[in-house]
Amino acid sequence: MEAGAWGVEIRGSLCSSGTGWGYNADQEDSQMPDAPRLTDLERARIAVEALIPIIRAFENELGVDRAHEIVARARAEKTKADLKKALEGKHLTRMPFTEKGMVETAAAGGALEYEILREDEEAFDFNVTRCRYKEMMQELDALDLGALLLCDGDFPAAEAWGLDLQRTQTCMQGASQCDFRYRVRRS
Q1: What are phi and psi of 2, to 5 degrees?
Q2: Residue 103 forms beta bridges with which residues?
Q3: Cα(169)–Cα(182) distance, rounded to whole angstroms?
């Protein structure tokens, strides 16, 4: 376990760029200590391959909008609950991201190509210029579910961290880049 630059110990990925659907590195380590570690992209593939047929069934039964509303709400609640538990008793005083932190975890194995524009105690700005999560969703013929299952979890994760996130575009939704702009929330 390694402490981040801001003093909070992190294990595994708490960034929602992976699946955000309940990955717990501590549990993984204790159950299979000799198993190879999966990247966020590999974990995401496992999760979305299981979720896609279920979501398609919900779409057929409830309609696309209602099915997506339910999935989005469940995903946001799960992300917030996981991060609340992981951050219990910890107080963040600075920006909780570094190049070698959360983004690097999500980018492991070449999953993301990105450029950092600003990184300090108040803000973290970066652009994703290539997203293999998008390519994976295309391969699975489920690009329409990519933002719902992967990208949209960045907002409840930021909220749980006490951050504001502005993002006007994503590769997943057809833009040439994702523009992440995180700011420390002042209360």
Answers
A1: -125, 140
A2: none
A3: 14
- The structure's pTM equals 0.78
Structural domains in the chain, CATH included, are 2-31+40-184 (3.30.1380)
Q: What is the DSSP letter of 117?
A: E
59, with CB counted inside 10 A (0-12, 13-18, 19+), is middle
Nearest to 40, CA basis, from 62, 60, 20: 20
- Inter-axis angle of helices 40-62 and 64-86, nearest 10: 140
Alpha-carbon gap, residue 35 to 29, rounded angstroms: 8
Grouping H, G, I as helix, E, B as strand and the rest as coil, residue 169 is coil
Averaged pLDDT in 10-residue chunks for the chain of 187 residues = 33 39 44 77 96 98 98 93 81 54 86 93 92 98 97 90 92 97 85
